[in-house]
Each structure stands twice: as structure tokens, then as C-alpha cells.
Design goal:
Shape: globular
Strand order of the largest sheet: 2-5-1-6-7
Strand content: 5-15%
Structural class: alpha/beta
Distance between the termini: 13 Å
Oligomer: single chain
């Protein structure tokens, strides 16, 4: 089974692209979705103990947690030390399940894939990209997002140009959904043909 790592900076269209792979019948896994599940389950007591007052009604309040770690690198590192191993276990479970199901291809979406050295876990990497102005417009349209927050997020992420240089495949979502879907199908076909010719 070929496992693709899918990544890209904030606002590039990773979730939309991941859904396109799923539409083609490919098993997919989202690290963001895994975090969301953990923030309503296993991670709640751990986070409340470390960051009191950031959970309510059995769930992590993402706004309060964000405020607790924003611009505080040591607190962010502490949070990541709790959450990353749990997210990684969910990823391992997904890959194992996909393998057992007989899938020939699976896709894992990890926003900070390069930043965390995760590229070594995958057979190929897909980078989702878009023009910087499109990216900025998309992100600033999100509720609660500010230019200051965006700059802080981008400062933690590898520059888009560097990600593209290291990618096996690039999908530009700035040209519309049909073009992105065409790119997704082309990648699936390319992987299928290379496997058949191996």
C-alpha cells in the first residue's frame, strides 16, 4: 500500500483536497479531525490539568486553549507534547486499518508534516498550495482570525515555496475546484500506473 502524506500551509485548501481523494474512494485521515476528536475525549482531562479553565462540559474550549498558548512557545510545546503522541497513534491505527482492508492507496493530511519531520513516514508527499493573496483572503475570512494571528501561524510554518520544492506532487487550489480535482485524479492514476509497472 502506498501512503501519501498531504500537507500545505494554512488556508491552502488541504481539507477540500483531502475530501476529493475520499470522493475517489481513497481511505483518508485528517490530523485536524483527530485533534478535534481528542479535544472531545481522551485529551480533555490532560489539557484541563495542564491548562486549568480551558475545558467545559467535557470538551476543550479551543478559543480559551488558543489564548492560553498564543505567543507563549513554552506552553505550546507543552501542549504539543501531550497531543502529538495521541494524534500519531490515531494515524497509525488508520494506516493499519487501511492496509488490512486491502487498500492500495491511503492519504494522511498533516498540516505541520515537514515542520515535525513527518515526511519520512510516507511514500510520497502532496503539497497543496495557492497564491499568497488567495491564501490570505481565505484565512482572514475565518471567524476570529486577525492579521496578527495569521502572521504568528505563518511564522511557525515552513514557507510554501520550500514545501513545494520538497514535494512529489503539487496541487494548486487557486485555479478552482475542477482543476484541483483533475490534479487529484492525475496523482491517483500516476501512482496506480507506477505500481502496475513495478
Amino acid at each position: 500500500m502506498i501512503v501519501l502524506g498531504l500537507t500545505g500551509s494554512i488556508g491552502m485548501g488541504k481539507s477540500t483536497t483531502l475530501a476529493m481523494f475520499e470522493d475517489e474512494g481513497i481511505p483518508v485521515h485528517s490530523a485536524d479531525a483527530a485533534v478535534h476528536d481528542l479535544y472531545e475525549g481522551a485529551a480533555v482531562p490532560i489539557i484541563e490539568a495542564a491548562f486549568p479553565g480551558t475545558t467545559a462540559n467535557g470538551k476543550v474550549d479551543r478559543g480559551k486553549l488558543s489564548a492560553a498558548v498564543f505567543s507563549r512557545p513554552e506552553k505550546l510545546k507543552q501542549l504539543e507534547a501531550f497531543v502529538h503522541p495521541l494524534v500519531r497513534q490515531k494515524e497509525l491505527n488508520f494506516v493499519e486499518q487501511a492496509r488490512k482492508s486491502g487498500a492500495s492507496l491511503a492519504v494522511v493530511d498533516i498540516p505541520l508534516l515537514y515542520e515535525t519531520g513527518g515526511e519520512l513516514r510516507f511514500d510520497k508527499i502532496v503539497v497543496v498550495t495557492a497564491d499568497p493573496q488567495i491564501q490570505r483572503t481565505r484565512v482572514l475570512a475565518r471567524p476570529g482570525m486577525t492579521a496578527q494571528k495569521l502572521e504568528a501561524i505563518l511564522a511557525r510554518q515552513m514557507p510554501d515555496a520550500d514545501k513545494r520544492l520538497r514535494a512529489h506532487y503539487i496541487i494548486d487550489t487557486g485555479h478552482g475546484l475542477d482543476a484541483a480535482r483533475h490534479s487529484v485524479r492525475a496523482i491517483i492514476t500516476s501512482i496506480s500506473e507506477s505500481r502496475d509497472n513495478a
